[in-house]
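Help needed: design a sequence for this.
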Protein backbone atom coordinates (compact mmCIF):
# COMPACT_ATOMS: atom_id res chain seq x y z
CA UNK A 1 0.00 0.00 0.00
CA UNK A 2 2.91 2.33 0.77
CA UNK A 3 6.63 1.81 0.17
CA UNK A 4 8.10 2.81 3.56
CA UNK A 5 6.56 4.10 6.78
CA UNK A 6 2.85 4.97 6.70
CA UNK A 7 2.05 8.69 6.43
CA UNK A 8 1.65 10.63 9.66
CA UNK A 9 -1.91 10.91 10.91
CA UNK A 10 -3.07 14.55 10.69
CA UNK A 11 -3.84 16.41 13.90
CA UNK A 12 -7.45 16.89 12.79
CA UNK A 13 -7.89 13.11 12.89
CA UNK A 14 -5.72 12.45 15.92
CA UNK A 15 -7.67 14.96 18.03
CA UNK A 16 -11.03 14.98 16.28
CA UNK A 17 -11.82 11.27 16.43
CA UNK A 18 -11.33 10.97 20.24
CA UNK A 19 -13.39 14.13 20.70
CA UNK A 20 -16.29 12.78 18.63
CA UNK A 21 -16.10 9.48 20.51
CA UNK A 22 -16.20 11.25 23.86
CA UNK A 23 -19.05 13.51 22.71
CA UNK A 24 -21.16 10.52 21.69
CA UNK A 25 -20.46 8.83 25.02
CA UNK A 26 -21.56 12.00 26.80
CA UNK A 27 -24.76 12.27 24.74
CA UNK A 28 -25.61 8.67 25.61
CA UNK A 29 -24.73 9.18 29.28
CA UNK A 30 -27.04 12.19 29.75
CA UNK A 31 -30.36 10.33 29.32
CA UNK A 32 -29.03 7.29 31.17
CA UNK A 33 -28.12 9.43 34.18
CA UNK A 34 -31.59 11.00 34.14
CA UNK A 35 -30.25 14.51 33.56
CA UNK A 36 -32.71 15.04 30.72
CA UNK A 37 -35.50 13.41 32.65
CA UNK A 38 -36.16 10.56 30.22
CA UNK A 39 -36.77 6.93 31.06
CA UNK A 40 -35.26 4.16 28.97
CA UNK A 41 -37.01 0.97 28.00
CA UNK A 42 -35.53 -2.08 26.28
CA UNK A 43 -36.16 -0.65 22.80
CA UNK A 44 -34.31 2.56 23.59
CA UNK A 45 -31.39 0.65 25.08
CA UNK A 46 -31.17 -1.58 22.00
CA UNK A 47 -31.26 1.44 19.66
CA UNK A 48 -28.57 3.21 21.67
CA UNK A 49 -26.31 0.15 21.58
CA UNK A 50 -26.88 -0.32 17.85
CA UNK A 51 -26.11 3.28 16.88
CA UNK A 52 -23.17 3.36 19.28
CA UNK A 53 -21.68 0.36 17.49
CA UNK A 54 -22.31 1.97 14.08
CA UNK A 55 -20.85 5.33 15.13
CA UNK A 56 -17.73 3.88 16.71
CA UNK A 57 -17.19 1.62 13.71
CA UNK A 58 -17.25 4.69 11.46
CA UNK A 59 -14.87 6.53 13.79
CA UNK A 60 -12.52 3.54 13.67
CA UNK A 61 -12.55 3.69 9.87
CA UNK A 62 -11.83 7.42 10.01
CA UNK A 63 -8.91 6.68 12.35
CA UNK A 64 -7.58 4.22 9.77
CA UNK A 65 -8.08 6.72 6.93
CA UNK A 66 -11.13 5.21 5.26
CA UNK A 67 -12.26 7.71 2.56
CA UNK A 68 -15.96 6.78 2.67
CA UNK A 69 -16.15 6.96 6.47
CA UNK A 70 -14.19 10.21 6.43
CA UNK A 71 -16.71 11.77 4.06
CA UNK A 72 -19.75 10.58 6.06
CA UNK A 73 -18.40 11.61 9.46
CA UNK A 74 -17.24 15.01 8.25
CA UNK A 75 -20.71 15.72 6.81
CA UNK A 76 -22.54 14.54 9.95
CA UNK A 77 -20.21 16.53 12.19
CA UNK A 78 -20.94 19.68 10.20
CA UNK A 79 -24.64 19.40 9.40
CA UNK A 80 -26.15 18.10 12.64
CA UNK A 81 -24.38 20.55 14.98
CA UNK A 82 -24.68 23.31 12.39
CA UNK A 83 -28.47 22.95 12.16
CA UNK A 84 -28.76 22.96 15.96
CA UNK A 85 -26.58 26.06 16.29
CA UNK A 86 -28.53 27.84 13.53
CA UNK A 87 -31.80 26.90 15.24
CA UNK A 88 -30.58 28.34 18.52
CA UNK A 89 -29.46 31.54 16.81
CA UNK A 90 -32.84 31.81 15.02
CA UNK A 91 -34.63 31.34 18.35
CA UNK A 92 -32.56 34.12 19.90
CA UNK A 93 -33.26 36.48 16.98
CA UNK A 94 -36.97 35.71 16.97
CA UNK A 95 -37.52 36.15 20.68
CA UNK A 96 -35.17 39.10 20.97
CA UNK A 97 -34.89 40.46 24.52
CA UNK A 98 -37.30 37.81 25.81
CA UNK A 99 -34.72 35.10 25.08
CA UNK A 100 -32.71 34.73 28.27
CA UNK A 101 -30.05 32.23 27.24
CA UNK A 102 -28.60 32.03 30.74
CA UNK A 103 -31.95 31.39 32.35
CA UNK A 104 -33.63 29.44 29.58
CA UNK A 105 -31.03 26.71 29.11
CA UNK A 106 -30.25 24.08 31.78
CA UNK A 107 -26.67 23.11 32.54
CA UNK A 108 -26.66 20.05 30.29
CA UNK A 109 -27.69 22.23 27.32
CA UNK A 110 -24.50 24.20 27.75
CA UNK A 111 -22.50 20.96 27.71
CA UNK A 112 -24.21 19.82 24.53
CA UNK A 113 -23.87 23.29 22.97
CA UNK A 114 -20.13 23.44 23.48
CA UNK A 115 -19.82 19.82 22.38
CA UNK A 116 -21.71 20.54 19.18
CA UNK A 117 -19.56 23.60 18.51
CA UNK A 118 -16.48 21.42 18.89
CA UNK A 119 -17.97 18.75 16.62
CA UNK A 120 -18.71 21.41 14.00
CA UNK A 121 -15.06 22.51 14.11
CA UNK A 122 -13.89 18.89 13.82
CA UNK A 123 -16.13 18.38 10.77
CA UNK A 124 -14.60 21.41 9.08
CA UNK A 125 -11.07 20.25 9.86
CA UNK A 126 -11.73 16.75 8.52
CA UNK A 127 -12.39 18.34 5.11
CA UNK A 128 -8.90 19.83 4.90
CA UNK A 129 -6.72 18.92 1.93
CA UNK A 130 -4.02 17.35 4.13
CA UNK A 131 -6.58 14.94 5.61
CA UNK A 132 -7.77 13.92 2.14
CA UNK A 133 -4.18 13.47 0.97
CA UNK A 134 -3.43 11.28 3.99
CA UNK A 135 -6.51 9.17 3.34
CA UNK A 136 -5.67 8.83 -0.36
CA UNK A 137 -2.12 7.74 0.47
CA UNK A 138 -3.45 4.98 2.72
CA UNK A 139 -6.30 3.96 0.40
CA UNK A 140 -5.56 4.78 -3.26
CA UNK A 141 -8.64 5.13 -5.48
CA UNK A 142 -9.70 1.91 -7.11
CA UNK A 143 -12.05 3.09 -9.86
CA UNK A 144 -11.10 1.88 -13.33
CA UNK A 145 -10.70 5.35 -14.78
CA UNK A 146 -8.53 6.63 -11.91
CA UNK A 147 -6.51 3.42 -11.88
CA UNK A 148 -5.78 3.95 -15.57
CA UNK A 149 -4.12 7.26 -14.69
CA UNK A 150 -1.57 5.74 -12.33
CA UNK A 151 1.97 5.64 -13.61
CA UNK A 152 0.97 7.25 -16.90
CA UNK A 153 4.15 8.00 -18.85
CA UNK A 154 4.95 11.60 -19.62
CA UNK A 155 3.68 12.30 -23.15
CA UNK A 156 6.51 12.46 -25.67
CA UNK A 157 6.58 14.95 -28.49
CA UNK A 158 4.78 13.31 -31.40
CA UNK A 159 6.75 12.92 -34.59
CA UNK A 160 5.49 12.49 -38.10
CA UNK A 161 4.39 8.91 -38.63
CA UNK A 162 6.34 7.09 -41.30
CA UNK A 163 5.75 3.76 -42.99
CA UNK A 164 8.48 2.12 -40.90
CA UNK A 165 6.36 2.67 -37.77
CA UNK A 166 3.46 0.57 -38.98
CA UNK A 167 3.06 -2.68 -37.07
CA UNK A 168 0.73 -5.50 -38.12
CA UNK A 169 -2.56 -5.24 -36.20
CA UNK A 170 -6.19 -5.97 -36.85
CA UNK A 171 -8.62 -3.11 -37.51
CA UNK A 172 -10.71 -1.72 -34.65
CA UNK A 173 -14.32 -0.57 -35.08
CA UNK A 174 -16.33 0.77 -32.14
CA UNK A 175 -19.87 2.16 -32.17
CA UNK A 176 -19.37 4.94 -29.63
CA UNK A 177 -22.86 6.35 -30.16
CA UNK A 178 -24.70 3.18 -29.15
CA UNK A 179 -22.51 2.70 -26.06
CA UNK A 180 -23.06 6.30 -25.03
CA UNK A 181 -26.83 6.09 -25.55
CA UNK A 182 -26.99 2.92 -23.47
CA UNK A 183 -25.09 4.57 -20.62
CA UNK A 184 -27.18 7.74 -20.86
CA UNK A 185 -30.43 5.74 -20.78
CA UNK A 186 -29.27 4.01 -17.63
CA UNK A 187 -28.32 7.26 -15.88
CA UNK A 188 -31.42 9.13 -17.00
CA UNK A 189 -33.54 6.13 -16.06
CA UNK A 190 -32.24 6.28 -12.49
CA UNK A 191 -33.02 9.99 -12.34
CA UNK A 192 -36.46 9.44 -13.82
CA UNK A 193 -37.13 6.66 -11.33
CA UNK A 194 -36.47 9.08 -8.50
CA UNK A 195 -38.96 11.53 -10.01
CA UNK A 196 -41.53 8.76 -10.45
CA UNK A 197 -41.11 7.76 -6.81
CA UNK A 198 -41.33 11.40 -5.77
CA UNK A 199 -44.46 12.28 -7.77
CA UNK A 200 -47.00 10.03 -5.95
CA UNK A 201 -46.11 11.28 -2.49
CA UNK A 202 -45.91 14.96 -3.41
CA UNK A 203 -49.66 15.59 -3.98
CA UNK A 204 -50.46 14.01 -0.62
CA UNK A 205 -47.92 16.17 1.19
CA UNK A 206 -49.04 19.30 -0.64
CA UNK A 207 -52.70 18.55 0.12
CA UNK A 208 -52.05 18.07 3.83
CA UNK A 209 -49.99 21.25 4.05
CA UNK A 210 -52.66 23.17 2.11
CA UNK A 211 -55.39 22.01 4.52
CA UNK A 212 -53.28 22.92 7.53
CA UNK A 213 -52.71 26.39 6.07
CA UNK A 214 -56.47 26.94 5.54
CA UNK A 215 -56.44 26.33 1.80
CA UNK A 216 -53.46 28.58 1.03
CA UNK A 217 -52.21 27.33 -2.39
CA UNK A 218 -48.75 28.88 -2.06
CA UNK A 219 -47.08 25.61 -1.08
CA UNK A 220 -48.74 23.77 -3.96
CA UNK A 221 -47.53 26.41 -6.43
CA UNK A 222 -43.97 26.25 -5.10
CA UNK A 223 -43.84 22.44 -5.30
CA UNK A 224 -45.41 22.44 -8.74
CA UNK A 225 -42.86 24.98 -9.95
CA UNK A 226 -40.03 22.89 -8.54
CA UNK A 227 -41.21 19.79 -10.39
CA UNK A 228 -41.63 21.81 -13.57
CA UNK A 229 -38.06 23.10 -13.31
CA UNK A 230 -36.74 19.56 -12.77
CA UNK A 231 -38.68 18.25 -15.76
CA UNK A 232 -37.45 21.12 -17.96
CA UNK A 233 -33.83 20.56 -16.90
CA UNK A 234 -34.14 16.89 -17.77
CA UNK A 235 -35.71 17.65 -21.17
CA UNK A 236 -33.15 20.34 -22.08
CA UNK A 237 -30.20 18.18 -20.99
CA UNK A 238 -31.47 15.22 -23.01
CA UNK A 239 -32.01 17.37 -26.11
CA UNK A 240 -28.51 18.88 -25.87
CA UNK A 241 -26.96 15.45 -25.46
CA UNK A 242 -28.81 14.11 -28.51
CA UNK A 243 -27.81 17.12 -30.59
CA UNK A 244 -24.18 16.82 -29.56
CA UNK A 245 -24.04 13.06 -30.15
CA UNK A 246 -25.90 13.35 -33.44
CA UNK A 247 -27.34 10.40 -35.35
CA UNK A 248 -24.32 8.28 -34.55
CA UNK A 249 -20.65 8.17 -33.69
CA UNK A 250 -18.61 5.27 -34.97
CA UNK A 251 -14.83 5.18 -35.10
CA UNK A 252 -12.61 2.82 -37.06
CA UNK A 253 -8.84 2.54 -36.77
CA UNK A 254 -6.84 0.58 -39.33
CA UNK A 255 -3.54 0.74 -41.18
CA UNK A 256 -4.46 3.70 -43.47
CA UNK A 257 -5.71 5.89 -40.58
CA UNK A 258 -8.72 6.81 -38.46
CA UNK A 259 -12.26 7.06 -39.84
CA UNK A 260 -15.18 8.65 -38.02
CA UNK A 261 -18.73 8.00 -39.24
CA UNK A 262 -21.81 9.95 -38.11
CA UNK A 263 -24.26 7.34 -39.50
CA UNK A 264 -25.49 9.81 -42.13
CA UNK A 265 -23.05 8.85 -44.85
CA UNK A 266 -20.64 11.63 -43.86
CA UNK A 267 -17.35 9.94 -43.12
CA UNK A 268 -14.30 11.87 -41.99
CA UNK A 269 -10.98 10.17 -42.62
CA UNK A 270 -7.63 11.07 -41.07
CA UNK A 271 -4.54 9.55 -42.61
CA UNK A 272 -1.78 8.98 -40.09
CA UNK A 273 0.33 11.66 -41.76
CA UNK A 274 -2.57 14.13 -41.34
CA UNK A 275 -2.52 13.84 -37.54
CA UNK A 276 -0.24 15.65 -35.12
CA UNK A 277 -1.29 13.62 -32.09
CA UNK A 278 -4.00 11.42 -30.60
CA UNK A 279 -4.82 11.14 -26.92
CA UNK A 280 -7.48 10.83 -24.23
CA UNK A 281 -8.30 13.88 -22.14
CA UNK A 282 -10.06 13.89 -18.79
CA UNK A 283 -11.24 16.43 -16.24
CA UNK A 284 -10.83 16.08 -12.47
CA UNK A 285 -13.44 17.94 -10.43
CA UNK A 286 -14.03 18.40 -6.72
CA UNK A 287 -17.31 16.90 -5.55
CA UNK A 288 -18.29 16.61 -1.88
CA UNK A 289 -14.72 16.83 -0.68
CA UNK A 290 -13.32 14.25 -3.09
CA UNK A 291 -11.89 14.22 -6.58
CA UNK A 292 -13.95 12.63 -9.34
CA UNK A 293 -13.12 12.12 -12.99
CA UNK A 294 -15.45 13.44 -15.65
CA UNK A 295 -15.87 11.66 -18.96
CA UNK A 296 -12.62 10.70 -20.75
CA UNK A 297 -12.79 11.79 -24.39
CA UNK A 298 -10.72 10.96 -27.44
CA UNK A 299 -8.95 13.93 -29.03
CA UNK A 300 -7.62 14.07 -32.58
CA UNK A 301 -5.11 16.85 -33.36
CA UNK A 302 -5.21 17.67 -37.07
CA UNK A 303 -1.85 18.50 -38.62
CA UNK A 304 -3.76 20.95 -40.82
CA UNK A 305 -6.11 22.83 -38.43
CA UNK A 306 -7.61 24.90 -41.25
CA UNK A 307 -8.73 21.81 -43.19
CA UNK A 308 -12.47 21.77 -43.89
CA UNK A 309 -14.17 18.89 -42.07
CA UNK A 310 -17.87 19.85 -41.88
CA UNK A 311 -19.05 16.63 -40.20
CA UNK A 312 -16.84 17.35 -37.18
CA UNK A 313 -17.62 21.04 -36.79
CA UNK A 314 -19.69 20.52 -33.63
CA UNK A 315 -16.89 18.45 -32.11
CA UNK A 316 -14.16 21.01 -32.67
CA UNK A 317 -12.66 22.53 -29.52
CA UNK A 318 -10.12 25.34 -29.18
CA UNK A 319 -8.17 25.16 -25.93
CA UNK A 320 -4.63 25.18 -24.65
CA UNK A 321 -2.84 22.12 -26.08
CA UNK A 322 -1.32 19.47 -23.79
CA UNK A 323 2.03 20.02 -25.54
CA UNK A 324 3.34 23.44 -26.69
CA UNK A 325 4.05 22.34 -30.29
CA UNK A 326 0.50 21.07 -30.87
CA UNK A 327 -2.26 23.20 -32.42
CA UNK A 328 -4.91 24.71 -30.13
CA UNK A 329 -7.74 23.18 -32.16
CA UNK A 330 -8.66 19.53 -31.79
CA UNK A 331 -11.64 17.26 -32.50
CA UNK A 332 -13.11 15.78 -29.31
CA UNK A 333 -15.15 12.57 -29.42
CA UNK A 334 -17.13 11.45 -26.40
CA UNK A 335 -16.18 8.02 -25.07
CA UNK A 336 -18.35 5.70 -22.99
CA UNK A 337 -17.08 4.99 -19.44
CA UNK A 338 -15.63 1.64 -20.44
CA UNK A 339 -12.01 0.88 -19.62
CA UNK A 340 -11.93 -1.86 -22.27
CA UNK A 341 -12.75 0.62 -25.05
CA UNK A 342 -10.12 3.04 -23.73
CA UNK A 343 -7.49 0.29 -23.78
CA UNK A 344 -8.54 -0.91 -27.26
CA UNK A 345 -8.25 2.61 -28.69
CA UNK A 346 -4.82 3.06 -27.16
CA UNK A 347 -3.64 -0.30 -28.47
CA UNK A 348 -5.01 0.42 -31.94
CA UNK A 349 -3.09 3.71 -32.18
CA UNK A 350 0.15 2.66 -30.48
CA UNK A 351 0.41 -0.50 -32.60
CA UNK A 352 0.48 1.67 -35.75
CA UNK A 353 1.83 5.10 -34.78
CA UNK A 354 3.20 4.93 -31.22
CA UNK A 355 4.75 8.40 -31.44
CA UNK A 356 1.37 9.97 -32.11
CA UNK A 357 -0.10 8.68 -28.86
CA UNK A 358 -0.17 11.35 -26.11
CA UNK A 359 -1.59 9.13 -23.42
CA UNK A 360 -3.98 10.55 -20.79
CA UNK A 361 -3.81 14.24 -19.97
CA UNK A 362 -6.08 16.74 -18.14
CA UNK A 363 -8.31 19.25 -19.88
CA UNK A 364 -9.42 22.56 -18.44
CA UNK A 365 -13.21 22.16 -18.64
CA UNK A 366 -15.55 19.29 -17.93
CA UNK A 367 -17.29 19.30 -21.35
CA UNK A 368 -19.45 16.45 -19.99
CA UNK A 369 -23.26 16.28 -19.65
CA UNK A 370 -24.20 16.45 -15.96
CA UNK A 371 -25.96 13.07 -16.00
CA UNK A 372 -22.83 11.34 -17.35
CA UNK A 373 -20.44 12.73 -14.75
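Sure. Designed sequence:
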Amino acid sequence: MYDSAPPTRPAAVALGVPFLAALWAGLIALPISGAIGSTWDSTAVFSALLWTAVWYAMLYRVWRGGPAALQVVSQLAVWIPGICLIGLAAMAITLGSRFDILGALPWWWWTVLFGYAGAFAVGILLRRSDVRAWSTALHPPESRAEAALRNVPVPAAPASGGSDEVAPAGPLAVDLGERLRSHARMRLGCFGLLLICFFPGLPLIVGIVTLIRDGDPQMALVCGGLLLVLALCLAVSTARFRRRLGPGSRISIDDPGITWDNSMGENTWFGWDQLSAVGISYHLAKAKGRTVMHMPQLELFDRYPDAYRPALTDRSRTEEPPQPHLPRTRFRLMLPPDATIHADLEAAVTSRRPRLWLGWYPRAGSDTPWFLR
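The first strand starts at residue 172 and ends at 175.
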